[in-house]
């Protein structure tokens, strides 16, 4: 199938932010009114170990790469208006640093100032950072030396937003949702074509166009070595009192780019402390997903989650980093009598520069890949439908221009 042909059938592997937004885009586009759509995911929805299903995700235009800042500004307008607005909370984002990462902060600040639609407050000291974030203590190493708060940024209830999106897709009554694990893409090595997928029970689903949107599991189905890497990031959760939530819920998220730690304002009597840094890897040797030789192996990082192992807990190093961060800025919340009551390793697939990988596969006809930069995939979810359509050749020239020049530091962090 040529890139500009309208497929009679589309198979989407993955029902996270990328997969569901793709299904939503297809359902809303009249050109695909006669296209059958199937979405396959290994778990029942919402998948509790998917990166897009969580208590909260930062929603921001605060990126050092100008194209992403502009795209995110468009997406954020949708969060405020017609994309799950009941799950969006605009309480601000404080971006800080104390080391070389201050350059990212400065570039991000310049981008949002150039766009000129956000309410920005520049912060010139740790004390200023502590003031806007309501911190009990302000050591520079923890809260940052300089930064700014974008009062027009916020956060979203990620699980709530994904459930909202699933319901929007279901309203069209056009998508066949299948719960099954994808084992191998159907490769035709003679014609260099992908025609669907083989499932774990050896049954097959055929389609004119297969869209791989499997997040951190994508590397099990195509060879992404040197392009994408799946890493696990630590998330820690702690119950708090109603008065503590009232005190902190209207404060901005604090995101320290120097130590990669952040705290999103609490909701539902739960505080989340997390880190997005280099992350953990889980090297796994698997049959080469694109090889005709069943004995050829490759080693890639693949998720190992609490669904894989219900007894899984985050490494002590990650738990300590989050607790030390909380102890340094909110010591009253980090007393020994108040442990984290739940933890999670959240798996993302990032490209080397943090950019999205949204493109037809250069080798395999009939295969479209949507992954990369997924730490903030949910943030861009309202706009991903337009990004997809621009890549698919639709009349989305304004966004197409942004997509074509997007690059640089991307969506990481």
TrEMBL record:
InterPro entries: FAD-dep_OxRdtase, FAD/NAD-bd_sf, MTOX. Its cofactor is FAD. It comes from the Eukaryota. Keywords: FAD, Flavoprotein, Oxidoreductase. The keyword Flavoprotein applies. Residues 10-383 form the FAD dependent oxidoreductase domain. Pfam families: DAO (PF01266). This is FAD dependent oxidoreductase domain-containing protein. It comes from Pseudopithomyces chartarum.
